[in-house]
Amino acid sequence: MPDRILLTGGTGFFGRRIAEVLRERGHTVATPGRPDFNLMDPDSTLRTLEQVKPDTIVHSAAHYGGLGICVAEPVQIFQRNVIMGVNLLDAAAKVGAKKFLTIGSACAYAGAVNGDMKESDFWSGPLHPSVESYGFTKKVMEVGMRAYQRGCGMMGQMPIVTNLYGEHDVFGEYRSHVAAALIKKFADAVIEKKKQVVCWGTGAPVREFIYSGDAAEGVARLLESGYTDPLNLGTGIGTTIKELSEIVARLTHFDGEIVWDTTKPDGVMRKVLDVSKMESVLNWKPPTSLEAGLAKTIKWYMANKAEADARS
Ligand SMILES: NC(=O)c1ccc[n+]([C@@H]2O[C@H](COP(=O)([O-])OP(=O)(O)OC[C@H]3O[C@@H](n4cnc5c(N)ncnc54)[C@H](OP(=O)(O)O)[C@@H]3O)[C@@H](O)[C@H]2O)c1
After folding, report:
1. 245 burial class (0-12, 13-18, 19+ CB within 10 angstroms)?
2. Which structural domains are found in the chain, ordered by start?
3. How far lies 171's CA from each of 81, 176, 179, 307, in Å?
4. If you measure from the C-alpha of residue 312 to the centroid of ligand 1, how many angstroms do you get, rounded to a whole number?
5. Catalytic residues
6. Ligand 1 within 6 A of CB of 79
7. 159, β-bridge pairs
8. Minimal CB count within 10 Å: which of 128, 179, 187, 232?
9. How many A from CA of 20 to the centre of ligand 1?
10. Is residue 109 lining ligand 1, measured as CB closer than 6 Å?
């Protein structure tokens, strides 16, 4: 049965894809945004929920980004994400919402996990210090959703999402993640006719990437499944940063040299989700290959470069 959904963060990179996919699947989706709907303000949050009267909340709003902002703003990231989540949980319970789905993140996993990250590892070990203040807020939301599930009967769900890329991503240096950052770096090098692009580290670390349109479909399938334990959402495919750089270089038509600045840190050597549970619970695998998803992203970025570069 279609849900009456209030989606937070509907103006954001991932939120706009989630809204599209949920609407395509027949759900009614309200995407209120700032300034009227400010999740930092409990009154504004409750007022909006009383107007929309959702039976389901999908919480995609966040204050965060790649390593740059995570290192520079640990206080704002921790404080804002916890306050926004708590305000929203409380307002959702007050208006009698039945379901609450929070977008989780693989950054909530321990910094050092042996092998691919399974849902059973979710509470094992300390987070990597660089993303601790962000990643831990996802754990806070998991505990919060369970509390409201026990106390008010509001069902909680959390997809643990791996690195996203796609159209409308953040490409500016301060907030971008690695795929978007590399796309901008190589595209700029081509425009500026540079013969060399310098990338951080050795290129050896292995990361996982999912196209935002596929991840949005995974979120919709989870919402419709009724499954309530945290569930990994990714491709399960590891790609080295060197391989990623080479694909981006080729797709942006950069024909110069890629130089690795090995004085810069590599970070964790491997971060890949185990997606076996996702495949069985959702009966689904993300269909878009990394190469095809990056090609779509680069096409969009080149057609909207000025607007994309201006988004901070
Ligand atoms: N990108 C990834 O690789 C990735 C990976 C795993 C998980 N995630 C998760 O995916 C979710 C969406 O991320 P994203 O990349 O789409 O982020 P984004 O592009 O930065 O969008 C963030 C959204 O949150 C809204 N927001 C921020 N503060 C708000 C406030 N006080 N009140 C109301 N709305 C507020 C923003 O609204 P404005 O337009 O007003 O700023 C924007 O719509 C987040 O929960 C993130 O943790 C992302």
Report:
1. buried
2. 4-163+209-233 (3.40.50.720), 167-207+237-271+288-310 (3.90.25.10)
3. 22, 5, 9, 10
4. 12
5. 134
6. no
7. 231
8. 128
9. 16
10. no
**9 CA distance to ligand 1 centroid (A)?**
5
- The pLDDT profile of the chain, 312 residues, written as one tens digit per residue, is 678 999 999 999 999 999 999 999 999 999 999 999 999 999 999 999 999 999 999 999 999 988 888 889 999 999 999 999 999 999 999 999 999 999 999 999 998 778 899 999 999 999 988 889 999 999 999 999 999 999 999 999 999 999 999 999 999 888 889 999 999 999 999 999 999 999 989 999 999 999 999 999 999 999 999 999 999 999 999 999 999 999 999 999 999 999 999 998 887 889 999 999 999 999 999 999 999 999 999 999 999 999 999 987
Quote the Cα angle for 199-204-168, to 5°: 55
Residue 168: DSSP 8-state: T
Q: Ligand 1 atom 20: the closest Cα is on which residue? A: 12
CA-nearest residue, atom 9 of ligand 1: 103
- Is the minimum distance from the CB of 38 to ligand 1 under 6 angstroms? yes
Query: How far apart are alpha carbons 74 and 141 in whole angstroms?
Result: 17
Q: Is residue 293 in contact with ligand 1, taking CB distance under 6 Å?
A: no
Q: How far is the CA of 60 from the centre of ligand 1 (A)?
A: 6
Residue 216: CB within 6 Å of ligand 1?
A: no
The percentage of the chain sitting over the pLDDT mark of 70, rounded to a whole number, equals 100
